[in-house]
Specification:
This protein is an alpha/beta fold. Helices cover 16% and strands 31% of the residues. Helix 8 (349-368) runs antiparallel to helix 9 (373-388). It starts with 8 loop residues before the first helix and ends with a strand.
């Protein structure tokens, strides 16, 4: 029933109008006149003035209306011309009556009052009581406001509303039963673009489909706002507690939820307040009223707990202001107090700065005491987050090993090689010198303390000791020497980077990629250390990497023959290069001893002069500076400097040069012999001998050019080589290369002196900076070698340059500078400011086109390409941009139309052919005009055809029939002939694809993937080619036809057909179960021997788990010692601990029977499911699932992660094309990571859609990735796949993955070494602990699989086998509604089976589906069908629809003879229609069947009755008058509007009656503030207020416009 704010129904309206009209001195119009003879029921649905859009704002307007003044001001004394349209022409009728009607809101007292047809914009419906809905009731749309006034609506079988673009507030929603929701639906509303505030729902719901539907507990699709609400019902475990999905400008704030997977089932989380992100229990919601009252909207209601225990004790809405509850400061106080206990000096400056700032803000907030609860919560979180991110200050002197801790004593390289994780908090001591050989491998990021105690680690063509030194790693008191090898990038003695500390160490290494301690200094500390020797890529490191901490090099020294990259100011402290003489002094020894601290090993001087660990030895300095000439010269030696200066004759045959005075090729000049003429048949050769240090200089054998690379000295010989092969030295030259001191430098570009000045280049043009130097004591500047200087660009995003080279170019238009400094004298420098002007791009094409001949393969791609093929040698090339100096010329990419034929590596800048064929390459580049800011995309293509150098013409087999025994093999040598094979060329692509007419009998595999051709005289010698040798292996008895089809079909070669017969072998089929058991015992033997003496400690988790899981017994004292080391370690962990460390430890402890929720007070499980780093890589997610499941952990609802979200996140690492899973992203994928993921998903894949989708694709990837030998390339990868298959219950001997005689079990046997350990690859004869552990895990898992035991990671303890423990059973024959079925049960302990009959099944009804929608004539008809027997049930549901009708006017005026079609009918229920229009007096007015009303000549009053098919009627009063039909009232407007300056809004007034003949006019009281057009368009001119008057006849309406 519709009610006014001060009265109800017609009675209230009648009284209001009567009073108003009497006061106005006019006879009152009775309410009955307004509604004629309509019944009371009919009148309730009619409006006098149905509102249309009140104001339609332009798309740029900022519109707001204040509704509080509507009516009161509009009908003041100044507005006397408005009148009711039924006042018989009296234009002075009551204003109050109209005001009363316009301000009316609608009251809902019963379910019948629910506006199922919708709530229009501008309308408000208020609840007057709790109501219970009936079946089918739902509000179709809410564009206005539904205000619950604290009441509750109980739903029947539908969500409360379908669409909400307006507001729902102050409402509770309950359910009489569990709702069944479809995808994207919620209990309160299905689609929300408006606002829901101060509401709650306790409705329980299920998804209509378990497979794909995502539902929301509270709402379905949210694109609007939900604030200060809660959901306490039950909903789908994979749905959203607040919303099913979201998008657009959604917002969720201060809203709680108790069920669902996450706040939003599928969608974004970027606009959800922190207090809305975590699931709560009902009790937690009861305790969180302060959150619900945080920043609560002013709706007249606030949250409180019910005093009578109603609503199950959950919060309810009570009348009161929106003032937030009293703020709770406890969390902020605790955060401040705990932070104040910290000591600043313990932490790095950068991390402490964040804490200091957050602490200051928190104190200020606490002192002021005016913050809201959300502000307090945010400040406490900010402070806690800053504290959690603190980084300990790295030590600058060797650290002391604490007493009582477990120390690992290292005596061999093997022990270090097996340290591959878990080093944090561990201590390692080197007890003697060790040597690392070429096959040494270590993949550990070291985070413990490694104390060399003065011993030496010698590298013998090996990698570094570790992969890198991590944040908490310390390496101290260690000498490193030898040669870096087996690497393909810059590497130091400690690997790739130093993030921790290297203290009191020395390094003396060589090798092409050698660079002191590490490739990069990444925020770490190097202190009190030295470097000498021949490290070509850097003295201490090759590269400085910007990190959170700037890094520190303190009290370090290196020979001036070694280079160092530039570093920011403050990184080098008391650290510098020294010449060799200065490095070989006791003074330096004293300096190092003064800086070694209390725990540093003592330094001494070695017999070679350099500092070393030990006592001083006898050292005799090299007193003879110049290398001694062994004999007199037969000729004088002359020298011509590279700069073209005059040739000089050397005095005493001595020459002094400088590494700074060389050309771009390091040539200092050329040596020659004065007056020398070589005899006929003889020639002169130049050589360097007795060089110190090695590689300081070099000679060109024939030309006499002298190359100078660094400081040093050498003796050069000029040797005459005679025609008979004899030789003699005819001259010697003693050479010293020394860097001279520089006083100043001068910079030039294109010959222009730009020292400390500026220079402008056009676009990306490449320029070089020429450096000239003035040596001490000299007056002139002279050219210097570019390699003696560093070139540091101020902004690397603008300028591209390698700081070791003098050339540069701009990446984009802009300004930056380059500072040039001398490497040996960093204080000598100069700067130039550089500017690049914009040069637009005209075109771009790939730098390769046409036919390209390919032949040799890229050996480095063997086994690395995703499709398993070996790529051909790459072809260097780039994109060609015109003009070449375009500003953005370097920012391009090239893509291929078919990567299987050839692709482009944008990283390496090479075209990579894969096979013959045609491919289109597309180059793309973006060009941004800095003036307009507009960006263009320019593309260009090129057509490339790859053709083989020697395409195949034929392939032949020496045999057509082969017989082989099962389990045995026989080689077959095929002959391949190509077009130019007769010239000595290999066939370019001899690949064969083998198919068989029967599976499971034989396999043909390639023996070798590829080989290097080393054949003297062959035109393609020294190329890598794919293998052509094949092997036939029988795997089952029978006869098959094998067809070998050449892959290269250039010349359409014929396939090879061989008849293969496999007979029964002498031996039996492989007993894989026995083989696996034997290999398990070998692995156990190796691991137990390895740990016999040293026991187990933190870091040995995988070994502990593998041994215990395989049934081995570890001595209790060793387990106790291990547990103690773990407890000591985890106590030092923080919330940002690496998740895999936690997960690894959790698994080992669970296998030991420990409680991982209380490891000496630390809850490891909580650290896993609350980790912020779980998504750092797929490994973290994988082992989170495995560890939590192994310990059977119940994850709380408010945890950051749950199992569903972990699975979903894991899917983000899956390559969408191949199905492989990558370690850090979804771009690649590897067999071992993919297999690990399958292990984690094994228990979910059959009932979790996401897990199933990931698993299915991953299995396909693994099947395709398997090698011909039924392995995956390494021991570890093969083991992980075997472990994955057995965890999933897949037989690894199945067709997809193996046979009884060839499979992953037999493959792993090939990795076993003589000591019973397993190696990383079959080409390595050295056992690895990591390889052995993983092989043990896989083989043990297979053994469990065949024995039908629980899977490998399932550590649930089922107790003693006192009686059969039947599983859930397996249905062998399903029951139907017609016949009984059977079910087979298996004892999970002993394997006993039993079979029972199952009862007849109930009909498998589908869900009820609407077959006929409800109409006004019949209720909805619903039907369900049994999927088994097809039986149908049909019934009516709900009631027939209520007849409704709405006219846009209920009274009009017409002049005689005039017609109108403006009267419209709307609001009809489904199935209804207009049956007739009828006039009560056709002499006065007529109406046709289309509703066209025509006034007759006679004046008077008549009624038009509109009758519906449902017999529902509505009446329209028509007055035919002779006078002009005048406007009685203007509606459809609001009294106050606000617009922004320069914006517009359009007024849309409605004249009453709608047939008024008086036109609308508009005027503004202040056109300087706001103007209005003749069409009602209001434009804001300047800030202020103006009144817009809308007039029609004598009636006007005033709108106050505020321009802001």
């Amino acid at each position: 029933m519709k009610k006014t704010k001060k009265g109800y129904g017609k009675k209230a309206l009648s009284v209001s109008l009567s009073m108003a009209l009497m006061l106005g001195g006019t006879a009152p119009v009775q309410a009955a006149d307004l509604f004629s003879d309509q019944t009371a029921e009919e009148s309730t649905s009619m409006e006098l003035y149905p509102e249309e859009n009140t104001a339609e704002e332009s798309n740029t307007a900022d519109f707001a209306a204040d509704e509080t003044e509507n009516g009161a001001e509009d009908f003041s004394a100044g507005q006397e011309d408005q009148a009711d349209e039924f006042s018989a022409g009296d234009e002075d009728s009551s204003k109050a009556a109209v005001a009363e009607v316009q301000s009316a809101s609608h009251v809902i007292s019963t379910a019948a009052d629910l506006p199922t047809g919708g709530i229009a914009e501008g309308e408000t419906y208020e609840l007057a009581a709790d109501i219970i809905l009936t079946s089918g009731q739902q509000i179709s749309s809410i564009a206005g406001t539904l205000d619950g006034k604290g009441h509750v609506i109980t739903l029947a079988d539908k969500p409360l509303a379908d669409k909400v673009s307006g507001t729902i507030q102050n409402l509770g929603v309950a359910g009489s039963s569990t709702l069944t929701l479809s995808d994207g639906q919620g209990s309160v509303a299905n689609t929300v673009t408006g606002t829901i505030q101060n509401c709650y729902s306790t409705v329980s719901s299920n998804a209509a489909s378990d497979y794909m539907d995502t539902i929301g507990g509270f709402v379905g699709n949210l694109q609007g706002t939900v604030t200060n609400c809660y959901f306490a019902g039950n909903t789908d475990m994979f749905g959203g507690g607040i919303a099913a999905t979201n998008g657009g400008s959604y917002k969720i704030s201060h809203t709680l939820w108790a069920s669902g997977m996450s706040a939003v089932g599928m969608g974004r989380t970027d606009n959800i307040s922190d207090d809305s992100k975590t699931k709560m229990t009902a009790d937690q919601i009861k305790a969180s009223v302060d959150i619900l009252n945080t920043e609560i909207p002013s709706t007249g209601f606030r949250w409180a707990l019910p005093s009578d225990g109603s609503n199950n004790g959950l919060p309810v809405l009570t009348e009161g202001s929106g003032t937030p509850a009293e703020v709770n400061w406890d969390s902020l106080k605790v955060a401040i107090e705990s932070t104040e206990k910290l000591t600043e000096s313990d932490y790095t400056e950068t991390s402490w700065k964040a804490v200091s700032e957050a602490l200051a803000e928190a104190r200020e907030m606490l002192d002021a005491g005016t913050a809201s609860q959300s502000e307090v919560n945010a400040a406490a979180k900010k402070l806690s987050d800053a504290v959690n991110a603190l980084k300990k200050q790295k030590p600058e002197a060797p650290v002391k090993i604490p007493e009582g801790v477990t120390v690992t004593h290292i005596t061999s390289a093997d022990q270090i090689e097996n340290i591959w994780s878990g080093t944090e908090g561990q201590y390692y001591v080197l007890d003697n010198d060790i040597t690392l050989t070429g096959d040494y491998m270590n993949f550990c990021e070291f985070n413990g303390v490694f104390d060399g105690q003065g011993h030496t680690v010698t590298l013998k063509d090996s990698q570094g000791l570790f992969t890198r030194v991590g944040e908490s790693g310390v390496v101290q008191n260690t000498a490193f020497k030898g040669t870096i090898g087996n690497v393909w990038e810059n590497t130091g003695a400690l690997g790739g980077s130093i993030k921790g500390a290297v203290l009191n160490c020395s390094v003396e290494i060589s090798g092409s990629y050698a660079c002191g301690f590490a490739k990069k200094l990444s925020g770490g500390v190097i202190a009190n250390s030295i470097s000498f020797g021949e490290s070509p890529k850097g003295a201490l490191f090759a590269q400085y990497e910007t990190a959170d901490d700037p890094g520190l090099v303190k009290n370090c020294y290196w020979t001036d023959t070694l280079s160092m990259p530039s570093v920011p100011e403050g990184v080098l402290v008391n650290s510098t290069s020294r010449d060799e003489t200065e490095m070989k002094t006791l003074d330096l020894v004293d300096v190092l001893n003064n800086g070694r601290g209390d725990n540093g090993t003592k330094w001494g001087q070695s017999s070679e002069g350099f500092p070393y660990f030990g006592e001083n030895q006898s050292y005799k300095p090299d007193t003879e500076v110049w290398p001694e000439l062994p004999a007199e010269n037969q000729y004088q030696v002359e020298f011509s400097a590279y700069n073209g200066s005059a040739k000089e004759t050397l005095t005493d045959s001595r020459l002094q040069v400088s590494p700074d005075s060389v050309n771009a090729f390091k040539v200092a000049g050329r040596l020659s012999l004065k007056d020398y003429q070589a005899p006929e048949g003889s020639h002169l050769e130049w050589n360097c001998t007795e060089m110190k240090p090695s590689g300081a200089m070099a000679m060109d054998l024939s030309s006499g050019d002298l190359y100078v690379y660094r400081n040093g000295k050498t003796l050069i010989t000029a040797t005459q080589i005679n025609s008979d092969g004899s030789s003699k030295v005819v001259a010697y030259v003693s050479v010293i290369a020394t860097t001279k001191k520089i006083e100043a430098v001068r910079l030039l570009i294109d010959g222009q002196d730009i020292t400390n000045g500026s220079f402008t280049v056009a676009g990306s043009e490449t320029k070089k900076i020429q450096v000239q130097g003035k040596y001490t004591g000299e007056d002139d500047f002279s050219d210097m070698a570019f390699s003696s200087f560093l070139y540091k660009a101020a902004d690397g995003s603008v300028i591209s340059n390698d700081e070791s080279y003098s050339s540069f170019f701009f990446l984009k238009p802009g300004t930056s500078s380059i500072t040039v400094s001398a490497k040996a004298q960093p204080d000598i420098s100069a700067k130039v400011d550089l500017t690049s002007t914009y040069v637009p791009i005209e075109s771009i094409v790939p730098g390769m086109s046409g036919q390209q001949v390919i032949h040799g393969r890229n050996a480095n791609s063997d086994g690395q390409e995703e499709d398993g093929r070996v790529a051909f040698n790459p072809i260097p090339g780039s994109a060609v941009v015109t003009p070449t100096n375009a500003s953005y010329a370097s920012d391009w990419t090239i893509t291929s139309s078919d990567d299987t034929i050839g692709y482009y590596s944008n990283g390496s800048k090479v075209f990579v052919p894969k096979q013959s064929g045609k491919v289109t390459y597309t180059a793309e580049i973006k060009d941004t005009d800095p003036e307009t800011g507009k960006t263009r995309t320019i593309t260009g293509t090129s057509e490339v055809e790859f053709v083989y150098k020697n395409p195949l013409t034929s392939v032949t087999s020496p045999v057509t029939e082969v017989t082989v025994r099962s389990g045995e093999s026989q080689d077959i040598d095929l002959s391949f002939t190509g077009e130019i094979s007769d010239q000595g060329y290999n066939v370019t692509d001899p690949s064969m694809k083998w198919t068989f007419d029967k599976k499971g009998v034989v396999v043909i595999t390639k023996k070798t993937s590829g080989y290097w051709k080393r054949q003297d005289g062959a035109p393609d010698t020294n190329n890598y080619f794919i293998g052509t040798d094949y092997r036939i292996t029988g795997i089952g008895e029978g006869t098959v036809i094998a067809t070998g089809t050449p892959v290269d079909q250039t010349n359409s070669p014929e396939p090879v057909k061989i008849r293969l017969t496999v007979t029964k072998g002498d031996g039996q089929d492989t007993d894989n179960k026995k083989l696996a058991s034997e290999d398990v015992e070998k692995a156990v033997s190796y691991l137990t021997d390895l740990h016999q003496e040293k026991g187990y400690q933190y870091g040995d988790e995988w070994v502990v788990y593998a041994l215990l899981r395989s049934g081995q017994t570890i001595d209790q004292d060793k387990l106790d010692a291990y547990y103690e080391s773990v407890c000591a370690t985890v106590k030092g962990w923080s919330a940002d601990q690496k998740p895999t460390d936690i997960e690894r430890v959790s698994l080992a402890l669970t296998a030991m029977g420990k409680d991982i929720t209380n490891v000496d007070g630390v809850n490891l499980a909580a650290m896993i499911y609350n980790s912020e780093k779980l998504k750092n890589g797929s490994n973290e997610l994988i082992y989170a699932l495995i560890a939590l499941d192994a310990a059977d952990i119940q994850i709380p609802g408010n945890a950051k992660w749950n199992r569903a979200s972990i699975i979903r996140a894991l899917g983000e690492f899956q390559n969408p094309t191949t199905g492989g899973i990558g370690l850090t992203d979804a771009k690649g994928g590897s067999s071992d990571i993919t297999a690990m993921a399958l292990q984690a998903l094994a228990v979910y894949r059959n009932h979790n859609t996401a897990a199933k989708n990931i698993s299915d694709k991953a299995l396909t990837y693994l099947a395709n990735a398997m090698g011909d030998d039924f392995g995956y390339g390494t021991c570890e990868s093969t083991a992980q796949v075997l472990l994955a298959l057995t965890s999933m219950g897949i037989d690894p001997l199945s067709d997809d993955f193996g046979t009884v005689n060839m499979n992953m079990i037999t493959n792993l046997t090939g990795y076993i070494q003589s000591d019973n350990g397993f190696s990383h690859s079959m080409s390595i004869s050295k056992s690895s602990e990591m390889s052995t552990v993983q092989a043990l895990q896989a083989l043990d898992s297979y053994r469990r699989f065949v024995n039908k035991e629980t899977t490998y990671w399932d550590l649930k303890n089922k107790g003693e086998h006192a009686k059969h423990s039947w599983d859930a059973g397996t249905v062998t024959k399903k029951s139907t509604c017609k016949t009984k079925g059977t079910k087979s049960y298996t004892c999970t302990w002993c394997g006993e089976k039993k079979t029972e009959s199952t009862a007849l099944a109930a009909h498998k009804w589908s869900s009820w589906k609407t077959t006929k929608s409800a109409t006004v004539f019949a209720p909805k008809q619903i039907t369900r069908t049994c999927s088994v027997c097809a039986k149908k049930e049909t019934k009516n549901s709900g009631s027939k629809l209520k007849s409704t009708i709405k006219l846009n006017a209920y009274g009009i005026r017409l002049n005689p003879g005039k017609s109108t079609s403006k009267v419209k009918v709307s609001g009809l229920a489904k199935g209804d229609s207009v049956k007739s229009w009828k006039s009560s007096n056709t002499a006065i007015v007529k109406v046709d069947k289309k509703g066209v009303i025509t006034a007759q000549k006679k004046t008077g009053t008549a009624y038009i009755t509109v009758t519906l098919a449902s017999k529902k009627t509505a009446k329209l009063k028509v007055v035919v008058q002779k006078g002009t039909v005048r406007t009685a009232a203007i509606t459809g407007l609001q009294s106050r509007i606000t617009i922004s300056k320069g914006k517009t809004t359009t007024l849309k007034p409605i004249r009453r009656p709608i047939t008024s003949a008086e036109k609308l006019t508009y005027s503004s009281s202040n056109k300087a503030v706001a103007t209005v057009s003749s069409k009602g368009v209001v434009r804001g001119v300047k800030k202020g207020t103006a009144v817009i008057t809308v007039r029609s006849g004598k009636v006007s309406y005033k709108c106050r416009v505020t321009v802001k």
